[in-house]
From TrEMBL:
Keywords, ordered alphabetically: 4Fe-4S, DNA damage, DNA repair, Glycosidase, Hydrolase, Iron, Iron-sulfur, Metal-binding
Family listed: Belongs to the Nth/MutY family.
PROSITE patterns, sorted: ENDONUCLEASE_III_1
Entry protein name: Adenine DNA glycosylase
Organism: Longimycelium tulufanense
Residue intervals of the HhH-GPD domain: 77-229
Amino acid sequence: MLQGPVALVSGHGNRCLAASGRIDLAMTTETCAQGRAPEVLALDPELLLAWFDANVRDLPWRRPECTPWGVLASEVMLQQTPVARVEPVWREWMARWPRPSALAAASQAEVVRAWGKLGYPRRALRLHAAATAIAEKHGDVVPADVDTLLALPGIGAYTARAVAAFAYGRRCPVVDTNVRRVVARAVQGAGDAGPPATNRDLADVQALLPAEENRAARYSAALMELGQVVCTARSPRCADCPVVDRCAWHRAGRPAYQGPTRPTQKFAGTDRQVRGLLLDVLRGSSGPVERPALDAVWADAGQRDRCLDSLLVDGLIEQTDDGRFALPGEG
Ligand code: SF4
């Protein structure tokens, strides 16, 4: 029996989470009050794993021959970036830098250039820093346990657990936006997960994991896959969902989400866009560039200067003694 915030869509007396006030479960008042229906797990491992086995996308970092290093690189690249954009870059990186020590031996400029248009380029430097630590302190082998992974530079709570689970088959909660959304809907009956709360989110997913390690790791991958391809944010395909009959939110008639929301991230006109344009100039140059080449990419001088400063602070670019700008190490 699973512990914690158990995924009940029907249940007994004090096990009725709807009655706890914490969540709005898809449970009829009659069923809840009578308490006669058997407990049913909304995100039942049997259902989810059977669906996953039949529907798993064939992605290169999921293949048996993929190394833990490949898994780590994929997880860093996939944060906030779609699979279709990541896959070609990941393949290039794995061909060029098949081991952490290979990436560690590359310059920061090579790494930032090879990151291409994946966005959030600080991830490239973080991956480089993690590769350096793995090469120097861990014999060029990606660590398997969460605490050691967390001690690597640039590796956060999500990535550490994703690597432990997906590269080494460990039982640990892997929680990203997709997983939070699936749990919020299927288990908690809410249309959206709302703002993250790391400890609570981890505990919620931990409680759902099967006991056996490898099974738990596949379950984590299945949860994430369900959120990515079926239980999507804007258009959940409930008719294709393996847990549609048990999903609390669906059973409740998919009520509109009433809780707090995160601001939607736009791109056009943001500092992210300007930083990307400035970096593009440097990626396209084999050496330092003059200031006018950067000034040409964005008309708003204040925003442009702010973005240039932030790139310098982040170590993504550097300034030469004669005032030109370059990728790190190329000045
Ligand atoms: S796809 Fe629909 S039925 Fe499946 S978990 Fe999401 S909201 Fe529930």
